């Protein structure tokens, strides 16, 4: 296994875990964490104007998640868009994100790059106040490019609003190498947080539709 040491690997490891306060480029996750924790300065979610309109980003596009009560947390910039589900229970949070990043690598081995990134993603799930409960990954080309599908379950003891409580974070997504540029990586993910011992919300159909909406565009 080649080791791909770069700041981007750190980003990939933690972007979906809500621990990205010091990492550039994960505004959507940061804002969801602030909003769900009731922090001052959190960005208010905005309504999705047209659920059938694709969000065009650099090298790819996505549709917003299907289903009720989704809102935009981080507006569609050039490289990232984030959506959150409006929930009444502050203990719970549901997020869907899509992002693209150019990585620094001297190798043209796409599979090796993805292997290194998914390994970093798994290791990041064990860091700090997280405890990894389950992690699976597999190569997948259904989106039209070389990707890794991953599914993880993590125990989280670091929610600022509830410092004495334990939560479970379930995440599902793809990390892909852009079909036209081997140094450009795209990620899509949906995740949800719930108190430990409580049943997760039935959002898989909505989340999977978001992952399946990924479409690559020329760069």
Describe the structure.
With 219 residues, this protein is an alpha+beta fold. It has a single domain (7-216), classed as Protein Transport Mog1p, Chain A (3-Layer(aba) Sandwich), CATH 3.40.1000.10. Helix content is 19%, strand content 36%. The protein is built from 4 helices and 11 strands; from the N terminus they run ααββββββαββββαβ. The strands form 2 sheets. An 8-stranded antiparallel β-sheet has the order 1-4-5-6-10-9-8-7, with helices on both faces. The chain has a 3-stranded antiparallel β-sheet with strand order 2-3-11. Helix 1 (7-14) packs across helix 3.
Keywords:
219 residues; eight-stranded antiparallel beta sheet; 4 helices; Protein Transport Mog1p, Chain A; three-stranded antiparallel beta sheet; disordered N terminus; 11 strands; 19% helix; alpha+beta; single chain
How is the biggest beta sheet arranged? 8 strands, antiparallel
Class by helix and strand content?
alpha+beta
* Total count of helical runs of at least 4 residues: 4
Inertia-based shape: globular
Total number of domains: 1
Kindly, what is the distance between the CA atoms of the first and last residues, rounded to a whole number of angstroms? Answer: 28 Å
The radius of gyration over CA amounts to 16 Å
Q: Helix coverage percent of residues?
A: 10-25%
Please name the fourth-level CATH homologous superfamily.
Mog1/PsbP, alpha/beta/alpha sandwich
Q: Low-confidence segments, ≥5 residues, pLDDT <50?
A: 1-32, 35-43
Overall pLDDT score:
81
Strand elements, count: 11
Output the strand order for the largest sheet. 1-4-5-6-10-9-8-7
CATH-defined fold name: Protein Transport Mog1p, Chain A
Order of helices and strands: HHEEEEEEHEEEEHE
CATH class: Alpha Beta
Beta-strand portion reads 35-45%
